[in-house]
Structure prediction request, 131 residues.
Amino acid sequence: MAELKTKKTELSVESFIKKVPEAQKRKDASVILGLMEKATKSKAKMWGTAIIGFGDKLLKYESGRELDWFVMGFSPRKQNFALYIPGAVEKQQSLLKNLGKHKAGKGCLYINKIEEVDLTVLKEIIARGAK
Prediction:
């Protein structure tokens, strides 16, 4: 079986955020980092070279495969932020309706900028995802 490429590393979260080219995206990344640290009560860690994860959990698949993963996380991509929040898409539809400008994938929530979403709603989505 292929080995998972995205693993927790010792890379610096602070250095990673400082390297984000756009000043506003760096500020937004810091806001999201604070929200997720507070909700998970976990310090941010780099997972691979581009994902900031919070907490640890063991994923178990029906096949019996197990892998270490984060409780929640995000990645400040060039075009948007990918937010990896458990249950955000499938279990929080009522909150998503009030979030503001976003897109939802199978397990990810995508936002462009913090100013385009309701921060109170985003905080609630993150808090519920951490439970």
